[in-house]
Amino acid sequence: MSADGGSGTGRRGGRLWRLLGRSGPDDGGDLAVAAEPADAGCTRIGDCGERPGGRPVVRVTGTLRSVTERTVAGMPALQAELDDGSASLDVVWLGRRSIAGIEPGRALVASGRIAMTHGRPVLFNPRYRLQPRGQE
User: Fold this and answer.
1) What span, in angstroms and rounded, lies between the C-alpha atoms of 114 and 95?
2) Which residue of 8, 67, 105, 123 pairs with 80 in a disulfide if CB–CB is 3.0 to 4.6 A?
């Protein structure tokens, strides 16, 4: 068996790279990673309501309108309202009083499982990415 994964072509990578749809690490395609637009693959917040079959996992983007600290079951929680123009939802980080960069006016991409609380969509402890300032 050769060092290239058994293909005998002299190309690096092998089976794993073919399964991933790549020709190998030296093809140059992986080196120039294009910046993904913030809204690529995102769901409009207005479309995030209850769906048949449970609580869907969504990726949303928008601007933080308000950020407040509150208490949930005796524990601190940071709550923010995320708005994308179609609607807004609450983003709640349980066990946190503050998070650097989470402030009103900041653009954010968040993903997680939607829950409905008091008829309003909520993301609890989502994965998130703050957008660079000036791109709001």
Assistant:
1) 19
2) 67
Helix (H), strand (E) at residue 3: none
| Residues 60-115: tens digit of each pLDDT | 999 999 999 999 889 999 999 999 999 999 999 999 999 999 999 999 999 999 99
pLDDT tens digits, one per residue of 5-50:
444 445 555 666 566 665 444 444 433 334 455 567 888 888 876 6
**Entry pTM:** 0.67
Beta carbons within 8 Å of 56's beta carbon, 6+ residues apart: 48, 113, 114
Angstrom distances, CA of residue 90 to CA of 21, 27, 40, 83, 112: 38, 43, 21, 9, 12
The values of phi and psi at residue 87, to 5°, are -175, -175
C-beta separation of 6 from 14 below 8 A: yes
What does the angle CA 12 – CA 16 – CA 17 come to, to the nearest 5 degrees? 50
* Other Cβ atoms closer than 10 A to 48: 20
- Structure token digits, residue 6: 């058994």
